[in-house]
């Protein structure tokens, strides 16, 4: 079983509470997802985030292909982190941790995504040229949108890394 991990780090000029209020509101995910992905929340995002919350989405990972994605919010520590896990969707495993930490002048946000692709060796073959490339584009888009919305902290570079586990 081949697993992968993506880690994205970004520092923004806003308070920890403002960051939490924005990032922990599931409805805001659509605002920081590229439009070409056709991301739409179908249900479950009408209340503040809580452990056990189930959220249904539809997304188009590739042109002409639409799929449902169901995630569960499994852990929430108010103002510090939350975890979402795929219950149904395009990945064999998707475990996404979102951390918010106060730093001088703002916050550092860290996303850690552990994921596994379906289809065995075909999934592994598609990782580099397709999946890793797409995840890179999605997280770079999010970074740009958040920088535009809240302002980047000077002197704190963003980072995006992948590794095989």
UniProtKB/TrEMBL annotation:
Pfam family name, one: Polyketide_cyc
Gene3D superfamilies reported for this sequence: 3.30.530.20
Record domain Coenzyme Q-binding protein COQ10 START: where: 15-137
InterPro entries membership: COQ10_START (IPR005031), START-like_dom_sf (IPR023393)
Family, similarity comment: Belongs to the ribosome association toxin RatA family.
Name of the protein in question: Coenzyme Q-binding protein COQ10 START domain-containing protein
């Amino acid at each position: 079983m081949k697993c992968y991990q993506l880690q994205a780090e970004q520092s923004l000029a806003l308070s920890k509470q403002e960051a939490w209020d924005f990032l922990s509101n599931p409805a805001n995910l659509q605002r920081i997802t590229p439009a070409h992905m056709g991301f739409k929340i179908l249900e479950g995002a009408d209340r503040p985030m809580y452990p056990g919350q189930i959220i249904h989405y539809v997304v188009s990972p590739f042109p002409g292909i639409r799929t449902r994605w169901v995630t569960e919010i499994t852990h929430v520590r108010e103002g510090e982190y939350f975890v979402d896990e795929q219950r149904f969707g395009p990945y064999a495993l998707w475990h996404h941790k979102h951390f918010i930490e106060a730093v001088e002048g703002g916050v550092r946000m860290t996303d850690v995504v552990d994921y596994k692709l379906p289809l065995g060796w075909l999934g592994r073959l598609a990782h580099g040229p397709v999946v890793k490339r797409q995840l890179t584009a999605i997280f770079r888009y999010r970074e740009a949108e958040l920088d535009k919305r809240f302002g980047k902290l000077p002197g704190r570079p963003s980072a995006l890394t992948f590794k095989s586990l």
